């Protein structure tokens, strides 16, 4: 500093209270109310925390490079709790379907849908109603010590044997989550060596479109996909 | 230039015939807005420039380099003014600030690899603050992409999470349309940065496809009006409120809704707080105005926001620096939330009355729908009392050095209301927002969401260029910077000197990265790890070395003359204000704390 500041240099003191003279936090009124972590005012009478639940979200997207990276980047960046994500073609040329199974609270599910909707290649997105048809494909390699028993369990769960060798048997299972879980429990007795699961995919029942506003196209039954 | 030598070149683009060809047509048609098809083009790069011109871009900020050279070459014949910056980060911040001041998307350009990665901070900054901006980056030729070619970076991958959308250009025939779309998308709905990555072959290849009129992609330009039934419900809640408060965010400014916001609040006598990005949306000298709320907001704004029973929030995303702990944020308020982005509704704070639409249009709807003003006389008095009880003041003891707040006030006094203020990030930024009385939108230009040190100087460059382009050369541009922040981007001073930009940089030099020092004193037992900046150069001399006016101020009585000299100086001036290193920013709501429990003294932290 160059030189001492003389009294004349210093501006006149503000006549209003200096910060240190203002009431301290404990001297002020504070409201009783509170919000929960989701920013919802807590109604003391009706205090209900949102439970997380499983939801199937279906999105119709433009089949352009990077669309999967955009969706998966969004999910990880915003810490959405996701169980599985599948992609495949639709009946419309140039459109793909992304099916996500998430475990979130209602506000969380709402956020996922809204954030997805903001991605430019996303045409429409929505939760598939609770009674949607869902299925997953599982490939399972088990020990072949007791081939007859493996075969019986495979039959019981409408599976198919894809490969049977001297030491291992590989089967294919399909079905909704509950069915797959039951089947895996049953196969565990043989010793599961490897497993590959596609994740759940889903369609709405009846006339309801799976993604909001979705219309059938003319691409027919797609036989190939290159994503 | 080693980087150009190493690039594979397409010799055809250098063909003198092509160049002659493009010259004639592009130059004559460039300025004609009635020609829907735009000027004839001969290369992808010319198509890019034609698209920019057609979209109304007037100014670009950038740095040259191998992969972007074709685009720069096409700019040679363009009406677009290019401002060469010292660093690409500066180009992005300048473009961002240019956009805020002008209301048009900013435009920045860089080459591939390091050029593109240097833009990243500025793009992320624009993304956090929802600023419309288009970044154009050069890329290695398409056939080299993925081979780790010289100066190859996956720019689309790197910038995906920090852009509204980004594009990889696929061919010379379509690149112009892509650029036009990206420009329009940046300002459609909720604004934000977009980027187009331009492989060199795409810009060099021949095409005669003139870009068509640019429109944002389908579904990205939402309905500006809110659902009328929802408006009616919100209006009933506002009429019934006893303690209503408006919270005007940056969306009010971006949506040019300041007039609508002022009309609404004044018609119904509703006190107003703003967020930091919302500063200027409502005049701070109005009796209804409580200034801005949040971590370093005014005590009275934080009291009002804590005690309100009806919060009318417009164009805000309820950032944590605003809300403090969510549990104690406006805990007794019904929330009316107006926003153009549905994803912001109930993201952080639950909206009891969500109104999705354009800020101005929905405020007009609401002004029309409210039938009688809420009965809030007692509440307005309470707010006025808080203003008396918790004024923004600072002490000036004789035995302490020059106070930074005094410098901010001195500048405010010496300048007109339309003066544009830019800042770095830190304590000086907070003082610049607290001790200046903002009355107009687009006069407070700062890095809010990202908090980017170094934003101030390049933003001042962009703001000055914008004001000049708008025919407002008499507006002052003042940058309040910190010593640490100034050191990050002060090289852009060379641009201000070269372009003869009339701006003033006030470095509030506390020889600390002061905000860190303040937190160390409050939360880390005063252990000044890496925050002591006594090694700073002499900024006045440095300014002179750049060719700017350089002044140094240590005492109160030197302040007014130096401010006057700098403002009068026709060109860039830097004043190195040596201010009290120990001064703290108050009031303060500690991170995650309750807004109503703001500290007014250090020992309360
Ligand atoms: C690019 C960047 N690096 C680090 C920080 C962390 N940071 C926040 S405020 C601050 C201090 C800034 O110092 P200075 O510019 O001198 O301003 P002061 O607080 O002293 O006014 C720092 C280091 C940041 N915000 N931005
Ligand atoms: Mg400092």
TrEMBL record, chain A:
<comment type="pathway">
    <text>Amino-acid biosynthesis; L-valine biosynthesis; L-valine from pyruvate: step 1/4.</text>
</comment>
<feature type="domain" description="ACT">
    <location>
        <begin position="56"/>
        <end position="133"/>
    </location>
</feature>
<dbReference type="GO" id="GO:0009097">
    <property type="term" value="P:isoleucine biosynthetic process"/>
</dbReference>
<keyword id="KW-0100">Branched-chain amino acid biosynthesis</keyword>
<dbReference type="Pfam" id="PF10369">
    <property type="entry name" value="ALS_ss_C"/>
</dbReference>
<feature type="region of interest" description="Disordered">
    <location>
        <begin position="201"/>
        <end position="227"/>
    </location>
</feature>
<dbReference type="GO" id="GO:0009099">
    <property type="term" value="P:L-valine biosynthetic process"/>
</dbReference>
<dbReference type="InterPro" id="IPR054480">
    <property type="entry name" value="AHAS_small-like_ACT"/>
</dbReference>
<dbReference type="InterPro" id="IPR002912">
    <property type="entry name" value="ACT_dom"/>
</dbReference>
<comment type="pathway">
    <text>Amino-acid biosynthesis; L-isoleucine biosynthesis; L-isoleucine from 2-oxobutanoate: step 1/4.</text>
</comment>
<dbReference type="GO" id="GO:1990610">
    <property type="term" value="F:acetolactate synthase regulator activity"/>
</dbReference>
<keyword id="KW-0028">Amino-acid biosynthesis</keyword>
<dbReference type="InterPro" id="IPR019455">
    <property type="entry name" value="Acetolactate_synth_ssu_C"/>
</dbReference>
<comment type="similarity">
    <text>Belongs to the acetolactate synthase small subunit family.</text>
</comment>
<dbReference type="GO" id="GO:0005829">
    <property type="term" value="C:cytosol"/>
</dbReference>
<dbReference type="Pfam" id="PF22629">
    <property type="entry name" value="ACT_AHAS_ss"/>
</dbReference>
<dbReference type="InterPro" id="IPR027271">
    <property type="entry name" value="Acetolactate_synth/TF_NikR_C"/>
</dbReference>
<dbReference type="InterPro" id="IPR045865">
    <property type="entry name" value="ACT-like_dom_sf"/>
</dbReference>
<feature type="region of interest" description="Disordered">
    <location>
        <begin position="1"/>
        <end position="43"/>
    </location>
</feature>
<feature type="compositionally biased region" description="Basic and acidic residues">
    <location>
        <begin position="25"/>
        <end position="41"/>
    </location>
</feature>
<dbReference type="InterPro" id="IPR004789">
    <property type="entry name" value="Acetalactate_synth_ssu"/>
</dbReference>
<dbReference type="InterPro" id="IPR039557">
    <property type="entry name" value="AHAS_ACT"/>
</dbReference>
TrEMBL record, chain B:
<dbReference type="InterPro" id="IPR039368">
    <property type="entry name" value="AHAS_TPP"/>
</dbReference>
<dbReference type="GO" id="GO:0044272">
    <property type="term" value="P:sulfur compound biosynthetic process"/>
</dbReference>
<dbReference type="GO" id="GO:0000287">
    <property type="term" value="F:magnesium ion binding"/>
</dbReference>
<dbReference type="InterPro" id="IPR012846">
    <property type="entry name" value="Acetolactate_synth_lsu"/>
</dbReference>
<dbReference type="GO" id="GO:0009097">
    <property type="term" value="P:isoleucine biosynthetic process"/>
</dbReference>
<keyword id="KW-0479">Metal-binding</keyword>
<dbReference type="InterPro" id="IPR045229">
    <property type="entry name" value="TPP_enz"/>
</dbReference>
<dbReference type="GO" id="GO:0050660">
    <property type="term" value="F:flavin adenine dinucleotide binding"/>
</dbReference>
<feature type="domain" description="Thiamine pyrophosphate enzyme central">
    <location>
        <begin position="231"/>
        <end position="366"/>
    </location>
</feature>
<keyword id="KW-0028">Amino-acid biosynthesis</keyword>
<dbReference type="InterPro" id="IPR029035">
    <property type="entry name" value="DHS-like_NAD/FAD-binding_dom"/>
</dbReference>
<feature type="compositionally biased region" description="Acidic residues">
    <location>
        <begin position="11"/>
        <end position="20"/>
    </location>
</feature>
<dbReference type="InterPro" id="IPR012001">
    <property type="entry name" value="Thiamin_PyroP_enz_TPP-bd_dom"/>
</dbReference>
<dbReference type="GO" id="GO:0030976">
    <property type="term" value="F:thiamine pyrophosphate binding"/>
</dbReference>
<dbReference type="GO" id="GO:0003984">
    <property type="term" value="F:acetolactate synthase activity"/>
</dbReference>
<protein>
    <recommendedName>
        <fullName>Acetolactate synthase</fullName>
        <ecNumber>2.2.1.6</ecNumber>
    </recommendedName>
</protein>
<comment type="pathway">
    <text>Amino-acid biosynthesis; L-isoleucine biosynthesis; L-isoleucine from 2-oxobutanoate: step 1/4.</text>
</comment>
<dbReference type="InterPro" id="IPR029061">
    <property type="entry name" value="THDP-binding"/>
</dbReference>
<feature type="domain" description="Thiamine pyrophosphate enzyme TPP-binding">
    <location>
        <begin position="424"/>
        <end position="577"/>
    </location>
</feature>
<keyword id="KW-0808">Transferase</keyword>
<feature type="compositionally biased region" description="Low complexity">
    <location>
        <begin position="21"/>
        <end position="43"/>
    </location>
</feature>
<dbReference type="Pfam" id="PF00205">
    <property type="entry name" value="TPP_enzyme_M"/>
</dbReference>
